[in-house]
Design a protein that fits this description.
Pnp Oxidase, Chain A, 28% helix, oxidoreductase activity, 166 residues, 7-stranded antiparallel sheet, Nitroreductase family deazaflavin-dependent oxidoreductase, Split_barrel_FMN-bd, F420H2_quin_Rdtase, alpha+beta
Length: 166
Amino acid sequence: MSSPSENPYGTPSTDGPEPIRGYQNVVNTIVRGLLKVPGLSKGVGKRLLTLHVVGRKSGQVYDVPVAYTRHNGDLLIGTGMRPWVKNLRGKVPVKVSMGGAAKEMLADVLEDEKSVMVCYEVIAADNKANAKFNGIGFHSDGTPNKADIYQTWQQGGVIVRLTPLA
């Protein structure tokens, strides 16, 4: 395994994922509200969903709006190791709202280098705004920069994979 300063893919083109801003809670509150409005939720939520994450200690439900990408029947979410992600340990069922009634899906947190590299490449190619937020730039041919993806993984980037329950 490489040391944190080594990047086998070369020099990243970014400084890594954007930090969470102090106003993010306000933005999340507004987005959560818009995602609940019939009609608006389809447009606003084209690439967003709300995860209803249950705190493993508190039992409190946290509604977390996140960007997602569809891939091979699953939904992929690229994110840093945020507090809400820690509640998704051990392939747990989680409720997901996507402009309608909440559905239960199985959440799995992928942290290993290979999974993060492969999935972030899929996510970045699908959603350039999400890629930018996660510190992933692009080569002149439009492909995601693997050095940036590796850097995102080094800095705590993970993938939440949501799989529909049978």
